[in-house]
Amino acid sequence: MKMKPPSTISACCAALLLALPASAAAKEKATPEASASPMAKPKAIAFHGKVAAIDASAKTFTVGKRTFTVTDATQITKEGAAATMSDLAVGEKASGSYWKKEGGVLEAKSVKIGTKVEASDPAPDAQKKRRQGKQRSQPELVA
To answer: In this structure, are residues 15 and 59 in contact, taking their beta carbons and an 8 Å threshold?
Structure first.
């Protein structure tokens, strides 16, 4: 096995040492841009369910286990028309989107108010589908 001259080894080490600061600087430049991008445009998260509680003085409402804060920027609609928080009622369906803010606050971006949910009556369409499924008969085997 031939040994490489010390000058070749020294040249390789020098090239590596010169390349390291350049790659570290490139990483530092990429990191702030990457972290600033998600903070600039947070994604809205969807929600839907039945309104369980409303606190008009705190401008909040609860759907499931989540409590949403309504702001002046929140867009509220009912049956396609503009609405206000006073149009919300406990037991109504609500859907929309929210942003998760600092401190765990869930700020409602948009809220669509639906019709009141009857807990005891399942949807008529669901009942029809169940009946149709039970009425299907198995083909008879002919021997």
So the answer is: no
Q: Which residue has the tokens 């006073």?
A: 86
Is the whole model's pTM more than 0.85, yes or no? no
Cα-trace Rg, the chain? 31
Catalogue the E-assigned strands of 64-140: 66-69, 75-78, 81-82, 92-100, 106-116
**Structural tokens at position 25:** 């600087």
- The candidate with the shortest Cα–Cα distance to 45, out of 88, 3, 100, 4, is 100
Phi, psi of 88, rounded to the nearest 5 degrees = -70, 145
Q: What digits encode the pLDDT tens for the residues 49-106?
A: 999 999 999 999 999 999 999 999 999 999 889 999 999 999 999 999 999 999 999 9
What pLDDT does 42 receive?
Answer: 77
CA separation, residue 7 to residues 10, 14, 16 (Å) = 5, 10, 14
